[in-house]
Design a protein that fits this description.
- Two copies of one chain form a homodimer.
- By secondary structure, chain A is mainly alpha-helical.
- The first copy, chain A, folds into two domains: 82 residues, Winged helix-like DNA-binding domain superfamily/Winged helix DNA-binding domain (Arc Repressor Mutant, subunit A); 89 residues.
- Helices cover 58% and strands 6% of the residues of chain A.
- Chain A contains seven helices and three strands, in the order αβααββαααα.
- A three-stranded antiparallel beta sheet of chain A has the order 1-3-2.
- In chain A, strand 2 and strand 3 form a beta hairpin.
- In chain A, helix 1 packs across helix 4 and helix 6 runs antiparallel to helix 7.
- The longest helix of chain A is centred in the C-terminal third of the chain and has 32 residues.
- Chain A starts with a helix and ends in a 30-residue tail after the last helix.
- At the A-B interface, helix 1, helix 4, helix 5, helix 6 and helix 7 of A face helix 1, helix 4, helix 5, helix 6 and helix 7 of B.
- The structure holds a DNA duplex (28 and 28 nucleotides).
Chain lengths: 200, 200
DNA sequence: CGACACATGTAACACGTTACATGATTTG
DNA sequence: CAAATCATGTAACGTGTTACATGTGTCG
């Protein structure tokens, strides 16, 4: 879904050819998600077929130019007006994996949680490094990076929350409220936005 | 990728047939992601073809049973041991949309951010309601729901952060530090885990 | 000249969705 | 009996990936 509308959005700014669309897409999103060039062409073909864009011959150097049609403009403004629904987002593989790890006998869920936590922290460090080394004036670029950072931080908090829940579950509600350490209560595990220095 | 390993995980517990696998998958993940039954069968066929599972005739009532092979067991334990990489996760349509909204002339990015925020808050309320109405003893179920809650909360914070950044960017660093309202600084926009009562 | 970036495409495949066809069993 | 649920599959299509084929332009 996303790249279809991505191309429409880029074409709403100016006519373009396939190769150009890829580089514009990547300069808008900061090349965090390199866009497959083959797919650009197949998507353009589909959009053309559906009347949302139209091929307008070749420019002076033989590049196949495309232009947004009125139908495409309508489709696009519909996209802008409609929030991204949570319903049609892809399944979260991590959540599924943890759920299955817990319910499958013979699987050490705690070990999986810890391995994953290390991986996510590592990723978080990559992201903050990338962010530090990039032009702070390029807004869209920076916000995309920060989107990933926010998500990764939430993931770490969730992993910690899972581990705490597992422990509590292990002590199968035999202990009464008023327990051992601290921290293991409901939500709010760990401070948010604590990106650096959470390596364990 | 996820459902392939999901089926392997379920089959590592006990032999099963297609229909059964779907209901087990959904009872593990809390039917937040209803699993397409058609795909279960095609995936089983692929797994069989690749030697990770094998069809073992039909049970007494004519249901096509499958069993995990040794190769499948190896593949599965590899999955358990390897953390989910951030590299091969799907693109985040929301982040792309906002990035394009900012870079495309003639698009009201602030309006899009606000519409999205309302939608996400609404979703968050749905999730907390679902969580409240569910069995608190079903760990895996609850954690999956909370995974979505953590992610949605992070999304709201990010959206707020985007809006603040846009405002700051609008005043193109002509104002000096020491400014108008408050709140619009760097990270930590809004308190985390504040699920209820953030409707605006 | 040779390597590399530019530029356009195609083929094969994995994965996901919706929809359809078909039949058995269960239940109101 | 009629409707719902159980159970297995197929077809068509959208979307994404990797890999290949093919040519032009540029630059060291």
């Amino acid at each position: 879904m996303s790249i279809k509308y991505g191309l429409l959005a880029l074409l709403s700014d100016a006519d373009a050819y396939g190769y150009q669309l890829r580089s514009r897409f990547e300069s808008a999103t900061g090349s965090v998600w390199p866009l497959n060039i083959g797919q650009v062409y197949t998507t353009l073909a589909r959009l053309d077929r559906d009347g949302l864009i139209e091929g307008i011959g070749t420019d002076g150097d033989g590049r196949a130019m495309y232009r947004l049609t009125n139908a495409g403009r309508t489709e696009l403004s519909g996209w802008w007006d409609t929030p991204v629904a949570h319903a049609d987002r892809p399944r979260d593989e991590l959540a599924i994996k943890i759920a299955l790890a817990i319910t499958t006998p013979g699987v050490d869920a705690t070990a999986i949680l810890q391995t994953q936590r290390r991986e996510t922290i590592r990723h978080l460090q990559d992201l903050t490094r990338v962010k530090r080394q990039s032009d702070p004036d390029d807004l869209s670029w920076r916000l995309v990076a920060e989107s990933l950072i926010f998500a990764a931080e939430a993931e770490v908090r969730w992993l910690d929350h899972c581990e705490a829940s597992l422990v509590r579950h292990g002590r199968t509600r035999k202990t009464k409220p008023g327990n051992t350490s601290g921290a293991a209560d409901g939500d709010s595990v760990k401070d948010p936005q604590a990106t650096e220095g959470t390596t364990r």
